[in-house]
Design a protein that fits this description.
- The structure is a single chain.
- The protein is of the alpha+beta class.
- It has a domain of 118 residues: Sandwich (Jelly Rolls).
- Strands 1-2-3-11-5-8 form a six-stranded antiparallel sheet, with helices on one face.
- Helix 1 crosses helix 3 and helix 2 crosses helix 3.
- The longest helix has 20 residues.
- The radius of gyration is 19 Å and the shape is globular.
- The structure holds zinc ion (ZN).
- Zinc ion binds next to helix 3.
Length: 219
Amino acid sequence: MNNTSQFHPDDTMLLEFSAGTLATAPSICVSAHLHFCSKCRAQLLRLDQVGSQLMSEAEPLELEEGTFDKVMANLDSSQQIPVKVDSQQNNYPFSVTKLLKNNLVSQTWKRLSSSVDVARFETGQEDFEVALHKICAGGKTPKHDHHGLEYTVVLKGSFSDENAVYREGDFLIRQPGDVHQPMGAQNGECICLSALSAPIKLTNPLGFLMKPWLRINPM
Ligand SMILES: [Zn+2]
């Protein structure tokens, strides 16, 4: 796949992903980005090699009996979703296709506002909500800031905010205090994967009358 991504996870995140220590929800987003981004796939390969080099240079330790089994059990429980470029019709990353198959809370899009639909995933993550958001062509989302971290990967189409245009594969992190107002591109709908660590807070002057963006009722 051609590399069109302009926005990438940083090396620390890739390193944690490589080591298997990144939390599941952001790992799903990194894995989705890797589907689109040959640059980060190459970087991950380098980091994997550094990791295995460090392992092979480490002093061998006397292991208690059963240690190997324990390590393997831990590896299994924190196993990363494999990065695989597949030829699905919708061209979604493998991690997303897998979620769509097994983890949708509801089989249909749920309307959040006049221009945004959501499909949530059940991932067993208490501190993160993982979902697809669909912004209709030219659709505006409410201006909002964030209480927690928000990871976003553009899967289809593009959207923009005050700072830039984000296209397929782009990986974004919003920090608490970041305020933005995403807008769908005029030429088609935009679908994003997101992992949110806390509910979004509206900054609209009437925000106090409204529910958090994610729980807004159909308009
Ligand atoms: Zn990248």
